[in-house]
């Protein structure tokens, strides 16, 4: 492409030089404007020598190059002939057009000389007649002008004579500005003729002016007058040459005292942004608090303008007053946003403050109020964003704590489900409302907001990052997992209901899976970008990190719920095993009541997880022998028991211990504690496992006689059926129950188990008693 463009450029240059040489009267002009040097080998130069050029070509080039140059020059000659022909055609058309134009001009000019002579005669006639009129009216014009001057003089004289009356009227109507204007306008005449012709008028006018001066001075120091009225009085006094420098300190002090009335106080801020759509009349709008405030600030600005003209050396103090008012506005704004404030109200107050700043900045541009306001606005706006997130966090906390879940209805009813749904709604709706408020900030057209849009986006991203981190920390504190400097809503950690911990765990999963992805989409759609200044104290919004945080928090809280429930059962078991003397235990007659309490606690766990957690895939895990058979430990025990019925008591005891330990050697390895999943079955199963493990440890700490061992055997045998119906891992439950029996046999002084008929009889009696108790409760309810 470059090799093709070069010949075209060279051709254009030659064409331009050709036209220049054609139209230029001096060949040197064309040469000086050309970009080609006048060398001997330049064929376009005026100093080109053909013979020398041919000799040079023959010396430097071979035949092939000469032939190529010949073909090239022939093409160039042909192109030049074509260009020259086109140039001649174009100029020929122009020459014909010029000739036609000249002919038309000659035909149009013909006869114009006679018309011009006639026009000249008419102009001369008009001029002679005009001179005649001027000559005849000259004396009358002079007389009229003289009368006009006399009339103006009489008006001035009449004005001087009427001045005292005019001043009195102004005093009655308190039109002091007009009075000063009348008096200052008449002062030049009164100074010249006041001692002669207008002596009485001057004396009466001066008396009226003295009254006006007194009234203005009274008005100047009156607390009931507005700031603008005082400033106007000061200006009028200065126009009357009344010394006001001595009043400067008092006037500026009064102006400073007026700042208190111009503040936008937090308790009155909401009234300024209220809009009554039903009242559109001018009178009601004039009484609107925002209109009253605007008029007051406008009067303050005009007062500063007047004082600046009257007291030029007071600029610095006026600057301080304007800056003080601006600072007070933003300080009160910070106090105002401490309570819950919508974005619309916040923007309404902000617009009022910005309008005040603009009014004062027009009067005192040197005070740099715009820069001061921009810095203060950044601080205030950043606090508003932070407090908005703080209010949302408080709403979520209030939703979690407003229900009383320490009562029985928490388990029997669906209080936990209601709390979970309400808290999920609070998180989702709260984030939606926050996005709506923050969009209003970005859509604001005020100049200062347009400049801060990147900062606002950054603050919002950082705000969500800090909000979710703070919310996760609050969840841990509410659950009692971590401690706080003070009790949560007046509740200590030992009084926190376990159901609340479960709700917090599931809510953490909801935030991880639903809320954070939704917030990420909203930020990417409307609040992307951001200024690096907003991230100076930490990272921006990082959804992946927050998901990991809430995932870890949900696992901690779920495990904390299981530990809390297990701890309660553990306390029950500790009381059961430490209270009696197991060495002197009596023969068992029924299942102990702690079994009912244990099952009741597990029933509460089941009801709680049913309200909060989803139901998983229920899989029954049965334990198998090492050879792959499906014989359970219970069937093995039944077989052993039937064999031992024919033996003596001592042989039966030794045989049971031997066979129990032998069975443990051949049992398939059972995984007891697996990862807890967020399903009803997984949480219940893990809780049961931990409780049985606690039961085993308490058994190992005691020493049993024969009756004590038989009581443990009876309780464990009764627990097998309801526990297997509750959990999903039967193999692990069988294993742990057997471990309790083994631990009791190891700690027993005389191991003689209950015979199966007796064991079944006691269990059936317990079941019948429980059924009767449940029927009575149903009838009574």
Q: How is this structure best described in words?
A:
- The protein is mostly helical and 781 residues long.
- The chain contains 29 helices and no strands.
- α5 packs across α6 (176-193) and α22 runs parallel beside α26.
- It is flat, with a radius of gyration of 53 Å.
- Residues 1-7, 27-38, 275-284 and 622-650 have low confidence and may be disordered.
- Belongs to the VPS51 family.
- Residues 272-291, 614-651 are annotated as: Disordered.
- One of its GO terms (cellular component) is membrane.
Compact description:
By secondary structure, the chain is mostly helical.
Strand count, sense and barrel status of the largest sheet are: none
Number of helices: 29
Low-confidence stretches: 1-7, 27-38, 275-284, 622-650
Order of helices and strands: HHHHHHHHHHHHHHHHHHHHHHHHHHHHH
Task: Write down the overall geometry.
Answer: flat
Strand proportion, as a percent range, falls in: under 5%
User: Which class of secondary structure composition applies to the elements?
Assistant: mainly alpha
Total strands: 0
Q: What is the oligomeric state here? A: single chain
The average pLDDT score comes to 77
Query: How far apart lie the N and C ends?
Result: 99 Å
As a percent range, the share of helical residues equals: over 70%
- Rg over CA atoms, rounded to whole Å, is 53 Å
Which terms summarize this structure?
781 residues, mainly alpha, 29 helices, 75% helix, Vacuolar protein sorting-associated protein 51 homolog, lipid transport, golgi apparatus, protein transport, EXOC2/Sec5_N_dom
